[in-house]
Amino acid sequence: MKVNFVITRDLGSKIFADLFRRFARDGRFDLAISEKALPGADIYHFHRPQLEEHLPARSVVTVHHDLEDSDPFVSFDRFESKYRQAERIICLNTGQAEFLAQHGMHHTVVVPHGYDPKLFSKKPLRTYKTGEPLKLGFISRRYGRRVKGEVLLEEIFQTLPPGSAEFYLIGEGRSQDAALLESFGFSCRCYEFLPYQLFPEVYKEIDFLLMLSAHEGGPANIPEAIASGTPVLTTPVGLTRDLIVDGENGLFLSGDFKQDRETLLKVMNNENGIFDRLTQGAHMSNKAITWNEVISRHIDIYRTVSGIASAGEPKELANSTT
Predict the structure, then answer these.
(1) Using an 8 Å Cβ cutoff, are 8 and 48 in contact?
(2) Residue 88 has pLDDT above 70, yes or no
(3) CA–CA separation, 150 vs 61, rounded Å?
(4) Quick check: 212 and 146 in contact, CB under 8 A?
(5) Taking the model in full, what pTM does it have?
(6) How is residue 4 annotated by DSSP?
């Protein structure tokens, strides 16, 4: 089976590069990556469909972003017609599929991000130790519009007791946040560029992953946290609503810094045993899937779609919702 990943325009995305590398190494199908659709492919998988004029037959698209994001760059209007033309829409989470269903599009399949079992495994169960700072991981690249929750981070931690938390900040641009948090009295370890093979060591060190994004399609750090047995303190966006059970392997934050400050204080003080309950729940959680399973599910989709239309057969899908 020949699959053509079409990126339409090469914008130098590290996220796409890492994702495509996983698929290319799998070896269960022939993969070609190009800016324009190549003739002779069995499947055309578009990753920036909004930049295309029209999708050919046997086309698949992936929704990589939050469909409710207010950023004009990812406005739903820019994507809608291409989503309708595709044979299948691959969603990263059920929220995306539900959003599309409300717009009459039911030809969706949910395939979340995965984790690498060669790197990530359950760490030793951690229990609360009185007086020790809460070790929090903040793992994401920093964007100019601060969509990853930087404002909420600042609001919460400038009102918490200095020294009550210790941060592991991972991602390009995170030195800015480290400097600010240190000015509030918090210890920080910051790695703007960390080899992926070392990411498991970060999860072994932290007590909780802190994810404060306003909008997300994934993110990929949620499966990593689950695979490593790390509970998550998160806003209810993207994959978190599928993989995090509130009060079991993490807590959902409100996005209001006063409420979230109180939640963090409860965790820091292990109020009613909440620290221990969440770490135990995370240690038992097994809701994430491996990247091998992610690719297997894509292959199933490709096989199904490749049988819908014969090679070279013209097909108008603009109004297709099946």
Answers:
(1) yes
(2) yes
(3) 30
(4) no
(5) 0.91
(6) E
